[in-house]
Amino acid sequence: MSVTNVRGTPDGSVADQLLRAVLESIIVIDLEGFVTSWSTGAEALYGWSADQAVGSHIDRLVTWLGDAPTDSSMLLEMAARGEGWEGELELRGRDEARTVHVRMSPLRGEDGSVLGSVGVATDVSRRTYVEQQLAASEARFRRVFDESPVGMVIIGPDADLHIQDANPAFSTMLGYEPGELAGQPLATVSAPEDLQREVELGLAMVAGKMPYYSIERALVRKDGSKLIGRSTASIIYDEQGEVLYGIGMVEDVTEQVAARETIRRQRERLDLVLESAGVCTWEVDLGTDALELSDNAAEVFGMGDEPPPADLSSFYAHVHPDDQHVFRELLPVMRSADPDERYTIDFRMITPSGAHRWIRQVGAWVLDEHGEPVAIRGTAVDATERRAHEQRIADQALIDEVTGLPNRALLLDRLQVGLRHLEEDGHLLVVLFVDLDRFKVINESLGHRVGDELLRQVGARLDQGLGPELTVARLGADEFVVLADEVSHVDGASELAKQVHHLLQAPFDVAGRAHHVSASIGLLTIVDPEAEPEAVLRDADAAASRAKARGGGHVEVFDPAIRTAVVARLELEEELRRGLAEDELVVHHQPVVTLEGRIVGFEALVRWEHPTRGLVPPGSFIPVAEQTGLVLPLGRFVLDGALRQLARWRVERPEAYDWTIAVNLSGRQLAEPGLVEEVREVIARHGLAPADLRLELTESMLMSGQHEIGEAIGDLRELGVRLSVDDFGTGYSSLVYLRRFPVDVLKLDRQFVQDVAHDQVDRAIVRSMIGLAHELGMQTVAEGVETLHQLEVLRSLGCDAGQGFYWSAALPAEAIEQHLLGPSPGSAQAAIVRGTSLDQPPS
Ligand code: C2E
Ligand code: MG
Ligand code: MG
Fold it and tell me: How far apart are CA 98 and CA 64, in angstroms?
């Protein structure tokens, strides 16, 4: 190639032409820096055409930029010395700056002398940019890798899956120093079972089955402990599609997993509890009506195998039509109530078999963050059994246990209904109060079991015999009530009473024995719808008592006079209660005297010093006291007063040591447990002996057959208390009781004494009673001796003692002392006066 040194003009030689055609940027400059050749590549690189460039000084064409290691003058000097240069330069041609790789070589003539310099340049600007970007990206990635809180690990594609790199988070997570894990096989940090799984997943990824996977797996720390990591892995390929490495991101989720596990277990436990308790849970979205149910819901709601309803309307389809209103009414109620409040409703579901099932549902609002209700959530249980149980209890409260008939409460309810209907239909309401006669005797002599069975049979016979339109109820004891609310005429009422008597005529067979039952019936017809049910029953009861007083088996039609008597009785009870509380009761004493006139004791007789009515005799309040139980405190008071008085007399007068004190006992007192103990205690309290006390019992008490009474009498005897039979001869004709309960004294009733002087029959009776007593080793006291004549006859008949106005009425102790006993001890016999207590002794 010959290149002539012609400044500013291309030489046009073949070499030059070749050179210029070269796509590489090749330029030739002479030793002074003028361009002699400018290839096509140089045109592209520097932006000047060959015409512009050739002949120009290089410094006009190219600006050296940056801290260029060299400049044109230096390069020209080197060229003059025949030296070459190679390196990268930053320079600008006509327009943009470029980074250029330049190789300068000296250009020699044929003689070897240096003519100039040839520069071959390659534009490296593009390459550097890519490399810079790569480096920057690499650095960015590195920072992410190093500083990420998430563990990152890069795993090689070799068989052992070696860890190529692990970031500090990953190393720290597993207890390693940063960098310590590089080069370790993955098995170092992986639990064997999970490693196997990861390998399989990795292979599946490589096979293109999935782009990445994410699993929770156990990892092993350096100290051998385990943690649960959530690792997400993917594979990085090169341009040829070969696996470069796998990359995994691992997060320690041990705590989350544990927490999740705890929640799961709690849930399971809760589910178990709910399920075994038969409780299901549900939630309704208020916006969509979607219904979410726990698994056991179908079972609780009794839906069988049907798919559980997914929304509210399909749920309602299973609810009993009569109960759907419960739900309709619920929402408004809930909306107006406190949002925290729970509600409970009962409703019926219809099961696939058509049966009803009661459900008890408890629910409450589910509120959003603004406190607005978004759902309702709650529980439900099968309440069928509970309802049945509650129903049974409710029934029991209205049904008499013995007979299965309506009880008092239900009767009052029906009575109320009947009264209300009176207004409308103009019928009569008829109430029969049926009181069985002598039932107590059966009950007490044959036992309660027999008694109950008899009551049951009586109830059943009345109920069946009278038909379903009438109500037959049992009030208690031996009292039944028949209620008829459709009677059109008064005659119908008396017919009904006859029917009841008729139904009871045939004997009842109880425990293999036939029992005849009669009843006293109180009949009441009501036309006044304003009548009070309680008052109606009271009136009917009063009428029945009247009927009973006539001797049983009778019907008494209620009339207002009866009511007056009843009211009076109630008032008396009230008054007596008050009187007892206010110490208005007093004890008077009536002497018991030998027929020779010597005092042998006293009978204590109670009186009521009424503030307005004056001294009230016991006959008008003892029966009420017995019925109400007031006789118990009253009896206690008399016993105490009588014994206190005897004790006081004994202190004052030696003859009182021969006296006994008689106290009347009522059946009610005898039946009261603890009586005997009480008697023992009072006697002891007053320093007396049991034999100083005589308790007066009536024949009916001795006959009662009631176990408690029999036992009490036996115990009293055993204690040493003496017993008298009061009013002897008026009660039972059977004297069997005298064999069973040996007593000390028979008190011959006043009715025999009254005519003993004139009536042969009475005298005969008295004689035989005295004979009987003496035969049995008992003494006799004649009651109500009023005349000397009576006294003389009694004396002739061998009677032992007497009591009566002939000697003295019952008097207060002071009066006894004043009139009977005289001022000084020892004069008791002398001073017998006729008292003026309550009793009116004949003049
Ligand atoms: P009782 O035990 O048969 O008492 C005798 C009654 O006959 C007394 O009536 C007495 O005042 C009266 N009386 C006595 N002598 C004569 C007489 O010559 N002629 C007439 N016509 N009557 C005479 P009183 O005090 O009214 O008592 C009536 C009944 O009340 C008593 O009958 C007794 O069963 C009962 N009673 C009295 N006090 C008590 C008591 O403290 N407890 C109990 N449970 N009952 C009492
Ligand atoms: Mg008496
Ligand atoms: Mg008497």
Answer: 10
Report which bound ligand comes closest to the CA of 694.
2
Strands 97-108 and 63-65: unpaired
Ligand 1 pocket (Cβ < 6 Å) reads 590, 605-606, 617-619, 622, 635, 638, 664-666, 696, 726-727, 750, 783-786, 803-805, 810, 839
CA distance linking residue 142 with residue 153, whole number of Å: 12
Q: Is 801 exposed, middle or buried (0-12, 13-18, 19+ CB in 10 A)?
A: buried
pLDDT tens digit sequence for 726-747: 999 887 667 778 888 889 999 9
The residue whose CA has the least distance to atom 37 of ligand 1 is 605
Which of 664, 723, 748, 781 for a ligand 1 pocket mutation test, highest count of atoms within 8 Å of Cβ? 664
Pick the ligand that lies closest to the CA of residue 642: 1
Nearest ligand to the C-alpha atom of residue 840: 1
Q: Which two tokens stand for residue 693?
A: 């006390």
Q: Which of 17-26, 194-203, 636-645, 822-831 has the lowest mean pLDDT?
A: 822-831
Among 119-128, 360-369, 712-721, 817-826, the least confident range? 817-826
Check: CB of residue 624 under 8 Å from CB of residue 659. no
Q: Where are the alpha helices (DSSP H) in 183-323?
A: 192-206, 254-276, 297-301, 312-316
Residue 605 Cα, ligand 1 centroid: separation in angstroms?
6
Give the dihedral of Cα atoms 595, 596, 597, 601; nearest 10 deg: -60
- Encode pLDDT of 120-143 as tens digits: 888 887 777 777 788 888 888 888
Percent of the chain with pLDDT over 70: 93
DSSP 3-state of 361? strand
Cα 803 to ligand 3 centre (Å): 10
Residue 746 Cα, ligand 1 centroid: separation in angstroms? 15
Of the candidates 502, 466, 461, the residue with the CA atom closest to the CA atom of residue 485: 466
> In this structure, what is the dihedral angle of CA atoms 100, 103, 109, 111, given to the nearest 10 degrees?
170
Question: 821 CA to middle of ligand 2, Å?
Answer: 22
Looking only at the bridges linking them, the beta strands covering 693-698 and 660-664 are: parallel
What is the residue type of 613?
R
Alpha-helical runs (H) found in 629-776: 631-652, 667-671, 675-685, 699-703, 707-719, 736-740, 750-754, 760-775
Nearest atom, ligand 1, residue 617 CA = 26
* pLDDT one-digit tens code per residue, 153-177: 999 888 778 899 999 999 999 999 9
Q: Could you give the 3-state DSSP secondary structure of residue 825?
A: coil
pTM: 0.47
Task: Give the CA distances from residue 752 to residues 249, 749, 794, in Å, rounded to whole numbers and listed in that order.
Answer: 123, 6, 11
Contacts of 759 (CB under 8 A, 6+ apart): none
> Taking residues 657-663, what's their average pLDDT?
96
At residue 12 the predicted structure's pLDDT band, cuts being 50, 70 and 90, is: low
Tell me which long-range contacts 559-562 makes (C-beta under 8 A, separation of at least 24): none
| Cα 698 to ligand 2 centre (Å) | 9
Q: How far is the CA of 810 from the centre of ligand 3 (A)?
A: 13
Q: Whose CA is nearest to atom 19 of ligand 1?
A: 784
Long-range contacts of 683-692 (CB under 8 A, 24+ apart): 683/643, 683/721, 685/643, 686/643, 686/644, 686/646, 686/647, 687/647, 688/643, 688/646, 688/647, 689/720, 690/719, 690/720, 690/721, 691/660, 691/720, 691/721, 691/722, 692/643, 692/646, 692/659, 692/660, 692/661
CB 374 within 8 A of CB 286: yes
Q: Specify whether the CB–CB gap between 508 and 458 falls below 8 A.
A: yes
- Bridge partners (DSSP) listed for residue 363: 343, 378
Instruction: Kindly indicate the confidence band of residue 15, based on its pLDDT and cuts at 50, 70 and 90.
Output: low
Protein residue whose Cα sits closest to atom 35 of ligand 1:
618
Q: How far is the CA of 750 from the centre of ligand 3 (A)?
A: 7
